[in-house]
């Protein structure tokens, strides 16, 4: 072993140097060179830092730098996040998105263009004027639809979601709300009154019939039973004196 190489190292190093830091790492750790001024120091990490990707070899695991326009990457040729000013598309960092795609400034990615989509029109509303459906001849009716898919920045904008058109209805007078309510209340009271009257009459009739029935039963109990009249023919029959 070289005099400057030590095996009693700290921080995950298998071997190290006082001047260069880690020279090799313990199993499963990644070796990466960090620059401090004009000097490079070897360190051992459980995962590679931002701007690096890890590669495992039989004798050592190393962290290598991503491309200059890539912030994080899976391999050198496949970026997962681009640096500022670039848009990610299929693992590459581009200054401008290809045709048919648009730049998403929120995710910094090239995405598909999304056009607006709406639902079907609803049926036309009743013909109305100033919120009423009576008291006029000409009014308006309305139909609406909903937006089911909002467009992206370069997508087709959404059309109008409501339509109105003139309509004609047969002229009729509006029934006053107070008067109509009063009439309904009077009809209801009259109906209840008639029902109560019929109920009272039926009750009286039943009571009278019950009283008459009880009266007849009492009379039957108090009157004496009539005796049968004697049979005159039997009384006038001759008496047999032979004996």
UniProtKB/TrEMBL annotation:
It is found in: Secreted. Residues 175-219 have a biased composition (Basic and acidic residues). The lineage of its organism: Eukaryota, Metazoa, Chordata, Craniata, Vertebrata. The keyword Repeat applies. It holds the Pfam family Furin-like_2. Residues 11-110 form the R-spondin Fu-CRD domain. One of its GO terms (molecular function) is signaling receptor binding. Belongs to the R-spondin family. GO terms for biological process: positive regulation of non-canonical Wnt signaling pathway; Wnt signaling pathway. This is R-spondin-3. The keyword Repeat applies. Residues 116-170 form the Spondin-like TSP1 domain. Residues 169-243 are annotated as: Disordered. Keywords: Disulfide bond, Glycoprotein, Heparin-binding, Repeat, Secreted, Sensory transduction, Signal, Wnt signaling pathway. Activator of the canonical Wnt signaling pathway by acting as a ligand for LGR4-6 receptors, which acts as a key regulator of angiogenesis. Upon binding to LGR4-6 (LGR4, LGR5 or LGR6), LGR4-6 associate with phosphorylated LRP6 and frizzled receptors that are activated by extracellular Wnt receptors, triggering the canonical Wnt signaling pathway to increase expression of target genes. Also regulates the canonical Wnt/beta-catenin-dependent pathway and non-canonical Wnt signaling by acting as an inhibitor of ZNRF3, an important regulator of the Wnt signaling pathway. One of its GO terms (cellular component) is extracellular region. InterPro entries: Furin_repeat, Growth_fac_rcpt_cys_sf, R-spondin, Rspo_Fu-CRD_dom, TSP1_rpt, TSP1_rpt_sf, TSP1_spondin_dom. CDD domains: FU. Interacts with the extracellular domain of FZD8 and LRP6. It however does not form a ternary complex with FZD8 and LRP6. Interacts with WNT1. Binds heparin. Interacts with LGR4, LGR5 and LGR6. It comes from the Eukaryota.
């Amino acid at each position: 072993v070289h005099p400057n190489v030590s095996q009693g190292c700290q921080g995950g190093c298998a071997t190290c140097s006082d001047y260069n830091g880690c020279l090799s790492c313990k199993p499963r750790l990644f070796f990466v060179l960090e620059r401090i001024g004009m000097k490079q120091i070897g360190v051992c990490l459980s995962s590679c830092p931002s701007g690096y990707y890890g590669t495992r070899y039989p004798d050592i695991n190393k962290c290598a730098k991503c491309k200059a326009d890539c912030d994080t990457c899976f391999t050198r040729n496949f970026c997962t996040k681009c640096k500022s000013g670039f848009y990610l598309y299929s693992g590459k960092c581009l200054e401008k998105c290809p045709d048919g795609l648009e730049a998403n400034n929120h995710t910094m990615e090239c995405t598909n263009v999304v056009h607006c989509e709406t639902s079907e029109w609803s049926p036309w509303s009743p013909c109305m004027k100033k919120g009423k459906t009576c008291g006029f001849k000409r009014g308006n009716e309305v139909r609406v639809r909903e937006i089911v898919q909002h467009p992206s920045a370069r997508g087709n904008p959404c059309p109008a979601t409501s339509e109105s058109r003139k309509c004609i209805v047969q002229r009729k007078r509006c029934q006053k709300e107070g008067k109509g309510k009063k009439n309904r209340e009077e009809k209801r009271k009259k109906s209840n009154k008639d029902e109560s009257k019929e109920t009272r009459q039926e009750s009286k009739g039943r009571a009278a019939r019950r009283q008459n029935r009880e009266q007849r039963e009492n009379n039957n109990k108090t009157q004496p039973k009539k005796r049968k009249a004697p049979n005159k023919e039997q009384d006038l029959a001759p008496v047999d004196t032979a004996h």
